[in-house]
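Project standup — Tuesday

K.O.: blocked on the structure for the chain from last sprint. Re-posting the sequence here as requested.
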Amino acid sequence: MTDVKKWIWLCLAACVVLIGLAGCQSREKAENQKSEVEFTVVAKEEIPKELAAEIEKNKQGEIRMAYTDGEDQYLIRGYGEQKTGGYSISVVECSEDETAVYLDTRLLGPANKEQITKEPSYPYIVLKIEARQKEVMIQ
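H.V.: unblocked you, prediction finished:
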């Protein structure tokens, strides 16, 4: 093969590799694009009775579940039994992409000593979102 033919084949091979890599990269970006999901933190007395019973039954262990009730979907994250009271939960992320809804929360310890009770507590949070036909991923 002549030097010109080698050069042409080398350029063609490099173009094919670059096109393949660019295609993978754009697919990755599209898959990783998430948008925020609007939610409402549901007060204990407003939780649907069937869901409240399920939370009560499982509150001693960690809870990661979703519950759909008509047009509403509830995302539940419980942290199981804590030795004292005064804990709270913050929502780090509630988002979605084309395939799933994502919820990430953090358990926060008692802010000050006045909030601490001696009895065990079972902190959990219930978020209400518009129902979606997607997988739910709870951290």
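K.O.: great, moving the ticket to review. The beta strands are 35-36, 40-41, 62-69, 72-79, 88-96, 100-108, 124-130, 135-138. The chain has a mean pLDDT of 85.
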